[in-house]
Write a structure and sequence with these properties.
globular; alpha+beta; single chain; four-stranded antiparallel beta sheet; 11 strands; Jelly Rolls
Length: about 180
């Protein structure tokens, strides 16, 4: 019998192509379905039992996409960042996570800073997509949360190549940490 993880991989592989609205919506829907999987499935039961900080569930050898599982703990905050040239979809399997989005603006003196655009409380079964250049942060609101992160490429490579931008709080303003 085919499990939800195998169906997810097959479903995404069948959709794969250049970045388009259809691809992003299809991957988001596939990931939301994965997040709604029965915790009785062995692969998901193992994630609930072991609570890994980060586990690669699939790295596609043909298309390069990566599916990760993250167990987050209460209060864990990941400051604003983008994903370089990549796009991502997050889905929450268990718990609650706040995700805030930002726009990057320049002051009159040319200094860039972030302005918060929105805040969403993700709950179990929800999925959100972020396109290249989108900036967001995350904060775990529940005791623990199990989050799936689908990336269309390996973000570790993007990071090594200096493609990702991370932001730091300086005097109450989010600014490029590398500037």
């Amino acid at each position: 019998m085919e499990d939800a993880l195998t169906r997810f991989i097959a479903g995404v592989r069948s959709l794969w192509g250049p970045l388009s609205s259809e691809l992003v919506v299809g991957c988001r829907d596939q990931l939301a379905a994965l997040a709604a999987s029965s915790p009785q499935e062995p692969w998901l039961a193992d994630l609930h039992r072991t609570r890994p900080d980060r586990r690669v569930l699939h790295r596609d050898p043909d298309h390069g996409f990566v599916l990760l599982a993250h167990t987050e703990s209460a209060g864990l905050f990941r400051p604003p960042h983008d994903h370089g040239r990549g796009w991502v979809v997050y889905a929450l399997q268990r718990g609650e996570i706040e995700m805030r989005t930002y726009g990057r603006v320049e002051d009159e003196d040319g200094k860039a800073r972030l302005v918060q655009r929105d805040s969403t409380i993700m709950r179990s079964g929800q999925a959100l997509a972020y396109l290249p250049g989108d900036i967001h942060d995350t904060r775990c609101l529940s005791d623990t949360a199990l989050l799936f992160r689908f990336t269309e490429r390996d973000l570790k490579v993007e990071d090594r190549e200096g493609q990702l931008t991370r932001y730091a709080d300086r005097d109450g303003a989010w600014v490029d940490a590398g500037a």
